[in-house]
Design brief:
Layout: E1 2-8, H1 12-21, E2 28-31, E3 48-49, H2 60-78, E4 83-84, E5 88-92, H3 95-111, E6 116-120, H4 121-127, E7 137-141, E8 145-147, H5 149-162, E9 166-168, E10 173-179, E11 182-187, E12 190-199, H6 205-210, E13 219-229, E14 240-243, E15 253-256, E16 262-265, E17 269-271, H7 281-294, E18 303-314, E19 320-323, E20 330-334, H8 340-359, H9 382-391, E21 398-400, E22 405-406, H10 407-415, H11 423-430, H12 443-454
Parallel strand pairs: 1-2, 1-12, 2-9, 5-14, 12-20
Antiparallel strand pairs: 3-8, 4-8, 5-7, 6-7, 10-11, 11-12, 13-16, 13-17, 13-18, 15-16, 19-20, 21-22
């Protein structure tokens, strides 16, 4: 297999880079070691589009955060991805913390963050009545928002694939050899030749860079645990509620999701195992205790799941984006921790421009920029539903009762470009299994539909690829 550009890593950054490169007259592949896109940091983070006031002045984090946040609303509209400009509050619970709030305000002003202000206790309580009475004041960032990171990644990949990008799943890079024409990548799906390689491998970006002898990158894996609460708890917060940040990050937050749930977390623990995403009693207890400082009435009776994600913390404390000093055809996009999601659209622009200048890329005569909005049966009116079912009866069969997801939507998810191949892939694309019962009722039906549509035995269907089989054999 030969390509002009290979992107290693199908997280939100890799997907958006691939989308930008799909507009160029080149052959591009995006590959990932997992069975789907968005399987690393992208599927397990706070889903926040940050204002841009936290990053140090003059850093790539600051520049690309502000630019990415400005791009995000239109990008989400083009890709038919839910986005909400709910704003954020950094809460202060003492006069000392208020001094830090003012510091963040001044930093934000220098970073060029618009619509930023310091507000008093009365204003905070008027906006967020469930916040602790101990609050003194806050920094209000009106441009901040929330988005679904894996939906954004899925949508970007779909459009990129429609434009000709190839998505290679279950394709782990084992070694990279440089030659006069670029590189030969030895992977679990065979040898791949590429004139240029973009390293967007998340927590493993330093490992991938070392494959070409580049040891300039050092990534610390920082684990964060979260609780997700039922939609009945969504009333608790309208804005994203931060506490004053520490050297380990932006602290434990309380935030609504674009789907109406409530998310609390994360913890922050540096770990040796970059793939350790197990939750712990200690970690979950920690985030609940810290979150109660923001909203005292919080409890876990409404918790429908808990999860952990891994952040790629660079020892430089800034994004690492540029051609490797070891090989100027190898472009590192590493250390993309918070505000990486916010900055992702701007990172993709930057990488596109770097590669265009380096390789003299030209635009395709035609390419797609917008995604056809997927069917969302739960959001339709009665008359819209009736008209849809008249055209296709599959939309009249509700598979997931908690979220009102139909068989038609599941079929769409499977047959989309770079479509779902496992139960979690269907879940991320449709929300089947994301409700209160967490797939207890619909899970078996999703397995059955996947097996039928992919024409494989049911015991070959997995939860998330690899060895995560759900069924093992027939009993009768």
């Amino acid at each position: 297999m030969q390509y002009d550009v290979v992107v290693i890593g199908a997280g939100v950054v890799g997907a958006l880079i691939s989308l930008e490169l799909s507009k160029k007259d080149i052959r591009v592949a995006i590959l990932d070691k997992c069975n789907d896109v968005a399987m690393g940091t992208t599927k397990a983070n706070s889903a926040i589009v940050h204002g841009g006031f936290d990053a140090a002045n003059g850093t790539l984090k600051a520049k690309l955060n502000v630019r990415g946040t400005a791009l995000m609303p239109q990008l989400c509209a083009d890709l038919a991805v839910p986005y909400r400009n709910n704003g954020s509050l950094v809460l202060a619970f003492s006069e000392e913390e208020m001094e830090h709030v003012h510091t963040l305000y001044e930093r934000g002003q220098k970073n060029g963050v618009p619509r930023l202000s310091v507000i008093d206790k009365a204003a905070v309580k008027a906006m967020e009545p469930h916040v602790s009475d101990e609050v003194v004041g806050a920094l209000l960032s009106e441009t901040a928002g929330i988005v679904c990171p894996y939906e954004l990644t899925i949508a970007a990949t779909e459009v990129a694939v429609t434009n000709g990008v190839e998505f290679l799943r279950n394709c782990a890079v084992e070694s990279i050899q440089a030659n006069n024409d670029g590189f030969v990548l030895s992977t679990t799906c065979g040898e791949i030749e590429a004139a240029y390689v973009i390293n967007a491998a998340g927590v493993h970006a330093d490992d991938v860079a070392r494959m070409i002898g580049d040891d300039s990158i050092s990534i610390i894996a920082r684990k964060g645990e979260y609780y997700l609460l039922d939609k009945s708890y969504g009333y608790i917060a309208d804005h994203t509620l931060f506490q004053c940040p520490t050297k380990m990050g932006k602290g434990v937050l309380v935030t609504p999701t674009v789907d109406g749930n409530l998310l609390i977390g994360p913890s922050a623990l540096d770990v040796e195992d970059k793939d350790d995403v197990d939750t712990t009693a200690e970690g979950l207890s920690f985030i609940l205790e810290k979150a109660k400082k923001t909203v005292p009435e919080l409890n876990t009776r409404g918790a429908i799941t808990s999860f952990a994600g891994m952040r790629a913390h660079p020892v430089t404390d800034d994004f690492i984006i540029g051609f490797s000093e070891k090989n100027d055809r190898f472009l590192n996009v590493a250390g993309i921790e918070s505000p990486g999601l916010s900055a992702a659209p701007a990172i993709a622009e930057m990488v596109r421009d770097l590669l265009t200048e380096k390789a003299g890329l030209t635009e395709k005569a035609q390419y797609k920029t917008k995604r056809t909005p997927p069917v969302r049966f739960r959001h339709m009116t009665k008359s819209e539903r009736e008209a849809l079912i008249a055209k296709n009866k599959a939309y009249g069969r509700v598979i997931c009762r908690c979220e009102t997801i139909t068989e038609g939507e599941i079929l769409d998810a499977i047959h989309a470009p770079a479509g779902a191949r496992d139960v979690d892939g269907v879940k991320r694309r449709t929300r089947a299994g994301m409700g209160r019962c967490q797939g207890g009722f619909c899970g078996s039906k999703v397995v059955e539909i996947l097996a039928r549509e992919l024409n494989v035995p049911m015991n070959e269907i997995t939860k998330f690829g690899g060895a995560s089989k759900i069924l093992f054999d027939k009993t009768k």
